[in-house]
Structure formats: C-alpha cells, structure tokens
Amino acid sequence: MELSELLGSAARAKAVFAEVRAGRDPMRTLEPGLKQRLAKVSRAPDFAVEETSTATDGTTKLRIRLGDGARIETVLIPERARTTVCVSTQVGCIRGCGFCLTSTMGLLRNLSTEEILLQLVASRRVARTCALPNVRNVVFMGMGEPLDNRDEVGRALAILTDNEGHGVGARHVTVSTVAPTPAAVLNTSGWPGQLAWSLHAARPEVRKRLIPTARHSPRALLESFEARLSGARRPTLFVEIALIDGINDQPIDADAAADLFRGTKLEVRFNLLPMNPGNGLGFQTSPRASQMKRSLQAHGYFCSLRRPRGRDEHAACGQLVIQP
Ligand code: SF4
C-alpha cells in the first residue's frame, strides 16, 4: 500500500518523508491513530545504532545492529558543505578482495531494500544531532558487492532518488562495483546514479591476485560497461584503483590501464586511492600514488587522488568489518 493511501493524503505522506529527510522521527508529527496504523503496516526494520566512532578528520562510523542481530557498518564523511554517506549492501561479502577486511567475513546475507535505506535514515539523524553538514551524496561502497544483491539495491536506488521519497539527486548517487560478470553489469540497466568500476588492476593476472573471484577479463567487463552506458547523454565511467605497494602501482600498471581504455567512447575518470593500511592482510599502501596519477594524466586521462578518510577509526575503504 502506498504511504499516501495509508495516511489518507499525499500531503501527509510528503510530510512524513520531509521529516525523514531532515533526520527527525516522522512519528512525532502524526496523530495517535495514524501513528498506530503506520506502525502496524510499516515494513521499516528494527535497528539500533550500537556504536558511533569519529576519526580525527570527522569521518564517523556507525555500527548498526539489525533486527536479526546481524551487524553492518555505515560511514558518514563530512566535507565543508555536505556529508557523503557510504552504505553497505550485504552483511559481509563473497568477492574475496585481498586488501579488504570485509572479505574476511565471507557473505552472511544480503540486506533488504529497507535495511539499505535505514542506513540513510540513521545517518541523517546522526548528522543532525552531531551538527554535520546535510547529507547530500550517497555512495554504495560499504560492506558488500551491490551487484550481488541486485534486486534490493535496485529498489533502494529508486526510492532513494525519488523526489517524493528520500529525494537524493541521481547525480549525487554512486554505485561502486568490482563488476562480477558482464551480465551483472548489463543488469543494472535503468538504475539511477553513476557507476564506478573497482578495477584495481588492468593486468588480468594482477587483478585476479587482488580479486580472486574475478573470472572475466577487464576487456570483457569494459565492453559490458560500454553497452550498459551506451544510451547515456554523457556516458561516463568512474574507475577506481586501490593502490598497493609493488602490486599495482608500477609504470607498467599505468600503461596497462591507459591501454585498456584507449579508444573507448566512454569518458573515463580515474580515481586513485592509496590502500588503507594496518589491516593485517599482507598488503601495504603505495607510496607511488602521485606518480601513478601523473602517468595516467600523461596518457590523457582525468585522474584524481582520493584523500584517505577515517583511517584512525577503521572507517576507510577496505577497513569495514564486524568481528565475530
Ligand atoms: S572491496 Fe568490496 S567487493 Fe571486494 S571484498 Fe570488499 S566489500 Fe567485497
């Protein structure tokens, strides 16, 4: 049943979502009868923010306990004028990336649409109470591989970007994926928001070492992104590389990445991130990030170097994990 039907008017439904967007509890605005009705049919899952930890740079990690006791992590990354929320899509992950602590959990289960969205609800509340800038961007880069949970992620994206729903602009939403298969990439057709490909290495043998579940060549995956984005007005692919010392940060790696995308019709924008250290997985962060950036730029590509955020509270990329 639509919320407006349930509450008896579209205006009331709008008012409820306005409260959610402002990080407030919508129940406080409803009359007791409506409150009861909403509580009865609401599919909003039980959750509790068990722990909040803030790094020296302001990055704030939430540990959220779900109704069945499963736990996930969500990260708020405040900038000067806006906050970006990094949401999880699974409890654990099956992709096995060697530099990522989430992979040590294996896959415990997928998150439901509601569990994905509640992370935004919780984040908006925390942003309001901690006086952080408004939440404007949402990135699907937390625990889990979004394309392995396609249906729930697709529904969450639709509600997230609906003006009558959570109202996050599609250009402020990014889904990051290792691209498990070409078919999985094509199956994201119609999703709002931008796609970011966690390539990590263009040389197939290096990529396989970093992502042991990678079964398809970078070229085959690139072709699927080209097909997926072919109808877009300005087809743009964000390409992420977590830089690891001596593994994927050499001149040969920059050349391989440049070669892979040579001739593509996509606008390719590289995003380099020195791997976050100290996670005991046997890889070290790269000291050659600036050289890699210069090499890719010399090949004619747009390339940015992402500033690591939240490392001291283990809130950075690759550091999210729930210990048993
Ligand atoms: S980097 Fe992403 S896809 Fe790889 S194991 Fe970690 S959560 Fe999964």
Describe the structure.
- With 324 residues, this protein is of the alpha/beta class.
- The protein folds into two domains: 1-42, no CATH class; 46-313, Aldolase class I (TIM Barrel, Alpha-Beta Barrel), CATH 3.20.20.
- The chain contains ten helices and twelve strands.
- It has helices spanning 3-7, 10-21, 32-41, 113-129, 150-161, 182-186, 204-210, 218-229, 251-261, 289-298; strands at 47-54, 60-66, 71-78, 83-86, 90-92, 107-110, 135-140, 173-177, 194-198, 236-243, 267-274, 302-305.
- A hairpin with a 4-residue loop joins β3 and β4.
- 41% of the residues are buried.
- The structure holds iron/sulfur cluster (SF4).
- Iron/sulfur cluster is lined by residues 93, 95-97, 100, 102-103, 143-145, 178.
List the helices and strands and how they pair.
Elements: H1 3-7, H2 10-21, H3 32-41, E1 47-54, E2 60-66, E3 71-78, E4 83-86, E5 90-92, E6 107-110, H4 113-129, E7 135-140, H5 150-161, E8 173-177, H6 182-186, E9 194-198, H7 204-210, H8 218-229, E10 236-243, H9 251-261, E11 267-274, H10 289-298, E12 302-305
Parallel strand pairs: 4-7, 7-8, 8-9, 9-10, 10-11, 11-12
Antiparallel strand pairs: 1-2, 2-3, 3-4, 5-6
The protein binds iron/sulfur cluster (SF4).
Iron/sulfur cluster binds next to loops.
